[in-house]
Amino acid sequence: MSITKEEKAKVFAEFGSSKTDTGSAEGQIALFTTRIKNLTDHLKTNKKDYSSRRGLLQLVGKRKKMLKYLQHTDIERYRAIISKLDLRK
Question: How far apart are CA 17 and CA 78, in angstroms?
Answer without folding.
Answer: 15
